[in-house]
Amino acid sequence: MRHDTVVDAIGNTPVVRLRVAAAEGVEVYAKLELLNPYAMKDRVARRVILEARRSGALRDGAPIVESSSGTMALGVALVGTYLGHPVHIVTDPRIDPVTLAKLEAMGCEVHVVEAMTAQGWQSARLERLADLMRDLPGAWWPQQYSNPDNPAAYRTLAAELLDDLGTVDVLVGSVGSGGSLCGTSAALLESAPDLKVVGVDCVGSVLFGQPDIAGRKQSGLGNSLHPENIDHRLLDEVHWLSDDEAFEATRSLARDQKIFAGNTSGSVYRVLTHLAAHAAPGTRIVGIMPDRGDRYTDTVYRHETSGPVATAPVEVPLGTTVGSWSYASMPRRDRPVLAFVESNTTGTGMLALRTATRLGFAPVLLTKDPARYQGLDATRCEAVTCDTEDDAAVRAAVATAAAGRTVAGVTTTSDFYLAHTARLARALGLPGHAQETAAACRDKSLTRQALGDAGVRQPRHAVVGDRSGAAAAVASVGLPCVVKPADGSGSQDVRWCGDEATALAQVALILAATENTRGQARAGKALVEEYVEGPEYSVEMFCADGEAVCVGVTQRTTTRLPYFVETGHLFPAALSAAARAELAETARHALKAIGFERGPAHVEARLTEAGAVVMEINGRLAGGMIPELVRAATGIDLLDQQVRAATGRPLRLVADRARHAGLRFLTAPEHGRLIGVTGTAEAARVPGVESVVTTGTPGRVVRPPRDAYDRLGHVIAVAATPREVDAALDRAMELLHVETAPMASDGDEAEGEPGVPARPVH
Fold first, then answer.
1. Is the backbone peptide bond immediately before 14 cis, with ω within 30 degrees of 0?
2. What DSSP character marks residue 474?
3. Strand, coil or helix: what is 345?
4. Which pLDDT value is given to residue 111?
5. Collapsing DSSP states into helix, strand and coil, what is residue 710?
6. What are the residues facing 498 on neighbouring strands?
C-alpha cells in the first residue's frame, strides 16, 4: 500500500490468525499493532498532535514535551519531528538503550532525570516536564492519560478489525492508560453489543482494585495511578499476570507463533490461549499486540524465572489481592448496583462513584438535585432524581435503577444522609448502621449523651432547645464557649463566643434556622460547649467485624477565632507514639459508646494537658480530601475500603508505603466577588506538589472563611518528611493569589474580633 508520508503509514496493521489449541471453529487472531512504524502508540501520537494543531493548542513549530520511557515517546517523536516540532522527551534511567537510540536518531532532546522523588520516578519526570513547560515558550504536552483523543485514536483500529474480519466476539487487550482497549471496544460495541471485552493487567497494578506494588518489572501495562481514560464500564473480565508469567508468555509467543514482541503482547497471548481453550465453536477472538520485542532483548528475553509460573488462571472475586495469574469476571450488563444516597458536594464524593465502578459495581446516585454535584457527568455514573427525604420514593428509585439486578449495598459520603442510608439498608436487608448509631452521628447532642454515659472525655456542654434556656446553658458551661448547631456539618454556624451576648445571639441564630443547606428540617437544638484549648487532630478509623482500626491521625490547622474552618491538613500527624496511641484508643472508646461497628469514621479530637478530648464523631470518611492524603502517604485507598465495607467485601487496611502528605485550602482574603485564582500553573510545578485544584466560580460572592463552603480550592503535596511537605505547600501558596473585586462589607469581622485570642493561620 502506497503512503505519501511516514505519518500516513500509521495504522492499517495486519491481522494474523494464530495456531492455538481450541475447539474446531474457534478463530484466534492477533492485531499486530507492533508493525506500525514504531508501535501502537503511533496512532495516539498522530491523533493528539494533529488535533492539537487543528484546534490551535499546538502552534506551528512549537515544542512538544512528553514524559515517557516507551512507545508513546517514540510515537510523539515520529509525528512531532516529522511535522517540524522540536520534541523533548522526559524519561528516567530505566529507559532501554534501544528506545533511547531511536529517540536520539529522530532528533529528539531526551531529558533523563537523575533521581526519583518521594513519589517515585513518574513524579520526578513530571517535575522536570513542568520545568520544561515553563522554560519553553508555547510548549505543548499531550497528557496521554487524560487526553480524550487517546481512546479516540483507536476508532481506526476498530474499523480495521471490522473491515478485515467482519465480526469480533471477544476482544483482549492490555491496560495501561486505558486508551487502546477502551477506545477500540467502545467503537466496536456500537455495532457489536454482545462483544466480550477482556483486559490484561499485571500483579501489583492498582487499575482493578489491587494494591500498588513497587518494583514490578512489566512495562506498557499496569499503573500506580487511575488514568481518566479507563472506562471500567466497558470491560467484562480482567486478568492479572506476574512478571515471571508475562515474560514466559512473551517467549512462548515468539517460540509458538514466531512473533517477536514485548511483554504486553506476551500477556495478551497468554490470555488468548486460555480463552480459546474454553471458547465455543464459532467464537472469533482478537488480541491487540502493541509493540515488538527489540526493546526487551536483555530483559524479558533473558529473564530467569524466580518462582512458579501458573499454567491456568484462578478465578477470584474482583478486589481480591492476587500474586499470580488470576482473573475476575465483571459482566458489564449485569453488574450489581451500589446505591449512593446523595453525596458530599466537595472532596471525595465523585471519586467514590468512580471507585465503585472500578471495583465492578454499577453505582447509582440517588439525589434530589443532580445539578448540585460538580463533576457528576465526568464519572459516567447513573443519577436517579427522587425525593431523598421520602423513604418510599428512595426505595422505589433503587428498584427502578436496579431493574432486576442485585443491589449489593447502600452507602453515602455525606453527613446529612447517614440516617437515610441506615433506613434504606434496613429496608433492603443489607448491611448498615443501626438507626440509633446513625442518629448519634448526626445529632451531636445524642453523641454527647452517649459519650457521657460511657465516661469518654469530652467538653462540658449544655443542650438548648429554646432561647429561654440559653443564658442558663452559657452560665453552666462558662466563658469563653463554643456554640454550634446539634446537626451541623462543615463548621457551619459554629462560633467561639467570648461573652454572653455573643453566645446568646449565636444560639438565637441557630434556633431560628428551620432548614439546612440540603433543605432538610433542622433539629432545633444548639449546643453550648466548653472551649477546649489544645492542638486539633482527626483520627481516621475504619470498623469491621467488631474491630475499630486506626488508619492514622491527621493534624489540622484552622482559621483564626471566632470560626473553626479547616485551612490545612498533614497526614500522618507529627506526634509521639504515645500521643498517637492515646488518640486512637480514645476514638475506639467513642465509637463503641455510640455502637459504631461498620465502615469509616472520622473522629475529631484535641490533645489537652488532661489527655485526648473528643469533639465530634462523624460516621463517614473525612472530608477535605483527607482520604487522598491517606492514599498518597500509605497506599490505603479509603474510598476503596468504603465500597468494600458497604458491599461485604474483605477489607485491606495495611499500608504499603510510608510517606507524608499535606493539604492547604484556598480562601478569599476579603469579602467581594471572585475574579479568579492566578498562579496555578506555577504552583503545580513546585517540587512535591501533586495537585492544584480550584473550585470557585468567577463571579460568585466570596468572603474570608466562616465555614467549609467558603473554600475555593486546595493544594496537595507529598514528600518523604513533614518538613518537605510544609515547604512545598508554603511555596505553592506563595504563588497562588485569589483575586476579588470589592463589595460592600456585611459588617462581620471574619478575620477575628476585638478580644478574640489569635491562633496561627496556615
1. no
2. H
3. coil
4. 95
5. helix
6. none
- Strand 337-341, strand 362-367: pairing: parallel
Q: What is the dihedral of CA 147, 148, 150, 154, to 10 degrees?
A: 180
Q: Which of 277, 276, 214, 273 is nearest to 243 (CA)?
A: 214
Contact 705, 563 (CB under 8 A): yes
The Cα–Cα gap between 26 and 4 comes to 38
Between CA 14 and CA 626 the distance in angstroms is: 49
Q: Which amino acid is at 611?
A: G
Is beta strand 599-608 parallel, antiparallel or unpaired with respect to 382-385? unpaired
Residues forming beta bridges with residue 380, ordered by sequence position? none
pTM (two decimals)? 0.85
Environment class of residue 65 by beta-carbon count within 10 Å: exposed (0-12), middle (13-18) or buried (19+)? buried
Q: List, for residues 644-678, the tens digit of each pLDDT value.
A: 999 988 898 999 889 999 999 999 999 999 999 99
The beta-strand segments (E) located in 354-416 are 362-367, 382-385, 407-411
Does the pLDDT value for residue 748 go beyond 60?
no
Which three cell numbers, joined as nine digits, stand for 580?
498517637
Give one DSSP letter per residue of 257-322, joined into a string.
H---B-HHHHHHHHHHHHHHHTPPTT-EEEEEE--BGGGGTTTGGGPPP-S---SSPEE--TT---
d(CA 13, CA 1): 11
Region 331-359 average pLDDT: 90
Contact partners, residue 354, CB within 8 Å, separation at least 6: 226, 379, 381
Give 522's DSSP letter: P
Each residue's pLDDT tens digit, 406-460: 999 999 999 899 999 999 999 999 989 999 999 999 999 999 999 999 999 999 9
What is the spatial distance between Cα 347 and Cα 447, in angstroms, rounded to a whole number?
25
First-to-last alpha carbon distance for the chain, in angstroms, is: 64
CA angle 311, 332, 289 (to 5 degrees): 45
675 by Cβ neighbours in 10 Å (0-12 / 13-18 / 19+) ranks as middle
Cα dist. 469→64, 501, 528 in Å? 69, 14, 11
Phi, psi of 388 (to 5 degrees): -75, -5
Residue 211: its pLDDT value, please? 86
The C-alpha atoms of residue 455 and residue 457 are separated, in whole angstroms, by 6
For the chain, the C-alpha Rg in angstroms (whole number) is 28
Helices (H), 594-669: 626-634, 638-647
> How far is it, in rounded angstroms, from Cα 378 to Cα 230?
12
CB 640 within 8 A of CB 634: no
Give Cα separations from 516 to 68, 485, 565 (angstroms).
Answer: 49, 10, 18
How many Å apart are CA 744 and CA 723, to the nearest integer? 40
Cα–Cα distance for residue pair 312/304, rounded to 1 Å = 20
Instruction: Please give the helix or strand (H or E) that residue 537 lies within, else none.
Output: strand 536-544
Residue with cell 503545580: 684
583 is written with which cell numbers?
488518640
* Cell numbers at 38, concatenated: 514504531
d(CA 588, CA 583): 9
Q: Give the span between the Cα atoms of 738 and 680, in whole angstroms.
A: 10
DSSP lists the bridge partners of residue 485 as: 526
Q: Residue 428 is placed in which grid cell?
A: 433492603
